[in-house]
Amino acid sequence: MYIIGRCLCVCLVLLLCFSCGSNESEKGKAKQIAIIVSTLNNPWFVFLAETAKEEAENRGYVARIFDSQNNTSLESNHFENAVALGYDAILLNATDSDGSVANAKKAMEAGIPVFCMDRELNNPDAATSQIVSDSYSGCVELGGLFVRSLKRKGKYVELLGLVGDNNTWNRSKGFHAVVDQFPEMEMVAQQSADFDRNKAMEVLESILQAHPDVDAVFCGNDAMAMGAQQALVAAGKDKAIRVYGFDGSEDAVRSVQAGGLDATVMQFPQKIAETAVAFSDEYFKGKTEFQQKTLVDVELVTPTNVDRYTSYGKE
C-alpha cells in the first residue's frame, strides 16, 4: 500500500508539473496575426502589408502576409486557413466590399477579431473595426483643383478602380460632387481599369481613339494614373492632357516633381497599418469595444508642395 500510495503521489506531482508547464508554455506563446491583402501586385498594398507585419513583429507578435490576388475565393481560403491554424487576429485589406463580408464573418464567428485596413466592408458587423482613408474628402479637394486647372471648362476621362471596392465609388463621388457643378465640364468616358497600371494604359489608348481631344484624365489611383501617363507619352499627348491620381505612391510623387502627373492625393498607409496593429494589441490586452470606423486624413500633392512629400508620407 505504501508503494502504491507513493507511486500515486509521484504521478500526481508529474501531472501537476506537466499542467503548469503547459500553462506557462501557453502564456509564453506569441500571438499570431494574419495579414490578408487584396493583392501584392500593387506597391501601395505591398507597403501596407509589410508595414503591418513589421509593426506586429516589433510588438512581439508573429505575423504572416497572405496575398488574395484580387480573388474573393482565394481570400476565403486564407480565412479558412487562419481559423484552422488558430490565428489570434486578422488584418484585412478586402478584395470586395460585399464579397468579402462572408469571409470576415467566418473569422468573427470563430472568435477572431477582424480589423479592416484601407478597404471598407459594406456590413459594419462583419469586422471589429475598420481603418480607412478619407477618400471622399480627398477627392472633393482634388475635384476643386481639377476644375480650376481646366478653367471650369473641358472634356475629361475618368478611370475607375475595381467596381466592387468602396474606395472606387467614394473617390468618384467626392470628385463628381465638385466637378458636376460646372456644366461646361464634360465627361466623355468613364471606364474601369481595376486599379491596374497596364489595364489603364490599354483602356486610355482605346478611349483616345474615340476622343482624341480630351483635356484631362482623373484616375482612381496612382497605378492607373501612371498607366494613363504612359499611354499619353506613347501618343505624344502627355504635354497637352493633364493626369490626376490618388495614393501618393513613389512613382507618382516623382512624376509630379518631374512635371508628369498634375497632382495626386497622399494616403498614409503607415498610419493605417500601425493603427490596425495597435487595435489588435489592445484586443489581446482585453479591450472589446472599438470605434466602428476610423477615418485617416489625406492630403493633396501638387507641384507647389510636392517637395514636402515622399512615397506614402511626408519628408
Summarize this, please?
Keywords: Signal. Helix content is 47%, strand content 19%.
Find the CATH superfamily of the largest domain.
Response regulator
Helix content: 40-55%
Q: Main sheet, how many strands, which sense, barrel? A: 6 strands, parallel
Q: Order of strands in the sheet with the most strands?
A: 2-1-3-4-5-11
Silhouette: elongated
Helix count from the secondary structure assignment: 10
Do you know the CATH topology of the largest domain?
Rossmann fold
InterPro entries: Peripla_BP_I, SBP_2_dom
Protein name: D-ribose ABC transporter substrate-binding protein
Subcellular location: Cell envelope
Keywords: Signal
Topology, pairings included?
Blueprint: H1 2-28, E1 32-37, H2 43-58, E2 62-67, H3 72-84, E3 89-92, H4 101-109, E4 114-117, E5 129-133, H5 135-149, E6 154-160, H6 166-179, E7 185-192, H7 197-210, E8 216-219, H8 222-235, E9 242-244, H9 250-258, E10 264-266, H10 269-284, E11 293-296, E12 299-301, E13 309-310, E14 313-314
Parallel strand pairs: 1-2, 1-3, 3-4, 4-5, 5-11, 6-7, 6-8, 8-9
Antiparallel strand pairs: 10-12, 13-14
Task: Characterise the protein shown here.
The chain has 315 residues and is an alpha/beta fold. It has two domains: 128 residues, Response regulator (Rossmann fold), CATH 3.40.50; 142 residues, Response regulator (Rossmann fold, 3-Layer(aba) Sandwich). Helix content is 47%, strand content 19%. The chain has a six-stranded parallel sheet, sandwiched between helices. The chain has a four-stranded parallel sheet with strand order 7-6-8-9, with helices on both faces. Helix 2 runs parallel beside helix 10, helix 3 runs parallel beside helix 4 and helix 5 runs parallel beside helix 6. The chain is elongated. The N terminus is likely disordered. One of its GO terms (molecular function) is carbohydrate binding.
